[in-house]
Structure formats: structure tokens, C-alpha cells
Write a structure and sequence with these properties.
The protein is of the alpha+beta class. It has one domain: Mannose-Binding Protein A, Chain A, CATH 3.10.100. The chain contains three helices and nine strands, in the order αββββααβββββ. A five-stranded antiparallel β-sheet has the order 1-2-3-4-9, with no helix packed on it. The protein has a four-stranded mixed β-sheet with strand order 7-6-5-8. β6 and β7 form a beta hairpin. The radius of gyration is 17 Å and the shape is globular. The N and C termini lie far apart (35 Å).
């Protein structure tokens, strides 16, 4: 009887949207979970563990984040330029030789941010830590890394 009650409670929690994740790895400020998310304990932001994986223009990047459901969460968004810059660490050469924690995998060096200026959008470059603007329709080497606020 106790097993049935415990299973019923667990099922109710899952249906109610509670997300259970086990810690996979940890470094100085990042914790990777087995549900494909990475927590930055310095900023209290949760990141997808990998970018979208292919060239994407700004408008589609924004939609990708809005529709992302990684880790079972549905409140993902496109990151701000300063949030991306906070991830940059020149002393680290992470996955694919980008200066970002090895807990996050990037498949290209340039990540879109939410900031726009007319028809241009900002992106952050993880090879050299620079900030740039390009036309929102540009998709060459553009990727997006969803983020969510921890409440």
C-alpha cells in the first residue's frame, strides 16, 4: 500500500510540473544536471547544456527559445548580451575550443542575444569575447543558447 501511495504522489508531482534532476558534474560555479540543463550559481541562471546545433537567424532563434522545453521547463528565453558575456571566461577552453565552461557545449562561436537595434541584432563571440551586430536575417554560424531565470 505504501508503494502505491508513494508512486501516486510521485506521479502527481510530475504531472504538476515538478522537475527532478540529478547532478551530473560540477565545477567552480556551474552544476550540470542529467536533464540537459546547467545552473550558473553565480548568476542564478539556468542554461541549456547545448546550443540549438545549427545555423539559425535571429527571429527563428527567438522562437526556438520561446518553444524550448529542456529539462521539463517551459519558461526559457533568449539571453541578453550581458548574460552571455558573463559566461565567457578566457582562462577556459571548453568544448570545441570556446571560452566557456565545459558543462555547456557550443557548436559554433557566435550566440544570438535578445538585443536588437533596428534590423540588426547583437551576438556574442565565444572565441574572443567580442560583441557584434549583424542583420537579423543572417544565419551563418549563428546559434542560440536558451536561458531561464531561477526563482
Amino acid at each position: 500500500m505504501k508503494k502505491i501511495i508513494a508512486a501516486a504522489i510521485l506521479l502527481m508531482l510530475i504531472i504538476a510540473g515538478f522537475v527532478f534532476a540529478a547532478e551530473k558534474a560540477r565545477d567552480s560555479r556551474f552544476i550540470a544536471y542529467d536533464n540537459g540543463t546547467v545552473l550558473d550559481t553565480k548568476t542564478n541562471l539556468m542554461w541549456a547544456a547545448t546550443d540549438n546545433g545549427k545555423d539559425i537567424d535571429w527571429e527563428n532563434a527567438k522562437a526556438y527559445c520561446a518553444n524550448f522545453s529542456g529539462g521539463g521547463y517551459t519558461d526559457w528565453r533568449m539571453p541578453e548580451e550581458d548574460e552571455l558575456a558573463e559566461l565567457y571566461d578566457h582562462s577556459i577552453t571548453g568544448n570545441n575550443n570556446y571560452h566557456i565552461t565545459t558543462m555547456i557545449t557550443l557548436t559554433a562561436s557566435c550566440l544570438w542575444s535578445s538585443e536588437t537595434r533596428r534590423l540588426a541584432a547583437a551576438y556574442f563571440h565565444f572565441r574572443n569575447g567580442s560583441r557584434h551586430l549583424t542583420h537579423q536575417s543572417n544565419s551563418v554560424n549563428g546559434r542560440v543558447l536558451p536561458v531561464r531565470d531561477i526563482k
